[in-house]
Amino acid sequence: MSRLIIVSNRVQPPTGEGGSGSQGGLAVALSAALRESSGIWFGWSGEVTDQFTGHINLQRNFGVTTATVDLEEQDVDEYYNGYANRTLWPLFHYRMDLAEFESGFAEGYERVNQRFAETLEPLIESDDLVWIHDYHMFPLGQYLRDGGITNRMGFFLHIPWPPYRLLLSLPNHRQLVETLFAYDVVGFQTIDSLGSFHDYVTQEMGGTIGEGGRVTVGDRSVVAISCPIGIDTTNFLEATESAAARYACYRMRQSSNGRDMIIGVDRLDYSKGLEERFLGYERLLQTDEALHGEVFLLQIAPPSRGDVQSYREIRASLDALSGRINGAYADVEWVPIRYVNRGYPRDRLAGIYRAAKIGLVTPLRDGMNLVAKEYIAAQDPENPGVLILSRFAGAAEQLTQALLINPYSPEEIADAIKLALEMPLEERKARWRACMDNIAAEDVLWWRKRFTDALEGVAQSVG
Ligand code: ADQ
Questions:
Q1: N or C: at which end does the chain have fewer Cβ atoms within 10 angstroms?
Q2: pTM > 0.90
Q3: What confidence tens digit (pLDDT) does each residue in 193-223 have?
C-alpha cells in the first residue's frame, strides 16, 4: 500500500485512540487512514509568525505524523480570511451578495499555495499518494506539478461546486478550473456538484466527458467522481453508548421536563440557514398555540470565522432573533429557544442528539452536512427521532427518507415539525432504518476507500 500524504488547511493532531472527545469526525477518519498507511498530514498550524520561514513542525501523536507550518499575518488575512472565506466560500454557497472580489485576496491565496507547495515537496517520496482537501487549496496540485512532482494526486472538495453560470461571476474562474486538471482524480460530495462541474467543462471549455468519469479538455484530462463523505459510524455508535453520552442524554431528558426537544447543531455560519430555521419555528409557535410549553428548540452554534464581518453580522442577528422570539413567547416555566454558543465533546453531543425527538438540519446550501448523519446514528432504533433535512444539503441525495424541506420556507419547516411530532412509531422506525442503512454502508471508511481506490486506479503522471 502506498504511503498517503493528506493536505488540508488546518491539521488536527489526534487526541486519542477512540477519538470520542472533541475531535471532529473527519479528523478521526483521516487519522485512521494515515495510521494504516504510515502517512503524513500536512497543513497550517493555525499559528501566526512574523515572517514565513517554511519551517516544518513534525510531530507524531497516536501513530499519526503531522507536519505543520506557521503563516504570516498577511497570509492569514488574504488567503484564509480573504480569498477562502470571503470570496470562495460565499460564492460556492450561492451567496454572490456576500462574495468579495479583491485582487489582494487572490494574490495572497496564490502566494500561500505556492509556499505550501515548496514546503511540502521535500517530504514527498516517489510512491506516495497525495490527497489534497478543499477550497483553500485548489491550485496546490498545479504548484506541486510545476515543482516536478509526478506522484498520483487527488483533490476532494468538501463544499458544493456551484452551477456553471454562478461560477462565471468569479474573476479568473477559468484559471481556477484549469488548476483541477493538475490532479489525477477530483472528488465532489454529490452527483449534483459533479454535474455542475461537467456543465462548466463542456460549456465553457469545450471539454468532453468519457468512460470512467474521465473529463478531457484539449490534451489534459482528469477523472471526476462523486464521492459522498460519511461519518465514522462504528466510532460514533461507540460514542453513543459511552457513559458520557448516556449521562448527557439522561440529564437532557431531565431538563426537558417531559417536553419534546428539537435539536440543531451547526457552526455559526450563514450557509446553515439558522435565521430561516428560527423563523420556521416561530411560525409553528404562531400557528399552533397548543404546542406552547410542549416543545423547545435547542440550538447549539459555536461561533466560527469571527474575523470575517458577515460572520459577526449573522451572530448579531441570531442574538436578536432568538431574543425576540423568546421575549414574545416565553413564560416563567418555559423558554421556546435555548440558544447556546459553544462546542461540546462528541460523546456528549451524541447523548444530546439521542434525547431529541427531532433533528432540525436546514442549511441553505451544504456540501454534505455530517450533523444530519450523526443525528440518525445517535438514535435509539426502538424509538428513533425524526430527521428534518434541507433538500439543499448534500446529505439529501443519500438520506431520502428524512423529511426533506425547502429551508427558505417557514411554512414547510413548521409543517414538517408538526408532522414529525405526530409521526407514528412504525413510520419513524421505517424512515430511520432507511437512513441508517445508508449511514452504516457509506461511512467515512467507504468514502476514503472509494477515493483512494480511484486514485490508485490511475497511472502515475508523467510530468
Ligand atoms: P462543516 O460546514 O463544518 O463542514 P458539518 O458537515 O455539519 O459542517 O460538520 C460539522 C462537524 O462539527 C460535525 O461533526 C459536528 O458534530 C461538529 N460540530 C458542529 N457543532 C458542534 C458543537 N457545537 N460542538 C461539537 N461539535 C460540533 C464542511 C462542509 C460540510 C461537509 C463537511 C465534511 O461545509 O458540508 O459535510 O465539511 O466534508
A1: C
A2: yes
A3: 999 999 999 999 999 999 999 999 999 999 9
For residue 300, which atom of ligand 1 is closest to its CA? Answer: 23
Active-site option among 128, 184, 269, 366: 366
Does 443 qualify as catalytic in the annotation? no
285-317 pLDDT, tens per residue? 999 999 999 999 999 999 888 888 889 999 999
Pick the atom of ligand 1 nearest to 189's CA: 38
Q: Which of 75, 158, 184, 347 is catalytic?
A: 158
SS3 per residue for the chain: CCCEEEEEEECCCCCCCCCCCCCCHHHHHHHHHHHHHCCEEEEEEEEEECCCCCCCEEEEECCEEEEEEEEEHHHHHHHHHHHHHHHHHHHHCCCCCCCCCCHHHHHHHHHHHHHHHHHHHHHCCCCCEEEEECHHHCCHHHHHHHCCCCCEEEEECCCCCCCHHHHCCCCCHHHHHHHHHHCCEEEECCHHHHHHHHHHHHHHHCCEECHHHEEEECCEEEEEEECCCCCCHHHHHHHHHCHHHHHHHHHHHHHHCCCEEEEEECCECHHHCHHHHHHHHHHHHHHCHHHCCCEEEEEECCECCCCCHHHHHHHHHHHHHHHHHHHHHCECCECCEEEECCCCCHHHHHHHHHCCCEEEECCCCECCCHHHHHHHHCCCCCCCCEEEEECCEHHHHCCCCCEEECCCCHHHHHHHHHHHHHCCHHHHHHHHHHHHHHHHHCCHHHHHHHHHHHHHCCCCCCC
Q: Report residue 326's pLDDT band, with 50, 70 and 90 as the boundaries.
A: very high
Q: Report the pocket of ligand 1 as residue ranges, CB < 6 Å.
A: 24-26, 158-159, 229, 265-267, 300, 302, 343-344, 349, 366-371, 374
Pocket probe for ligand 1: among 314, 352, 369, the residue whose CB has the most ligand atoms within 8 Å is 369
Ligand 1, atom 4, residue with closest C-alpha: 369
Give yes or no: 269 in active site.
Answer: no
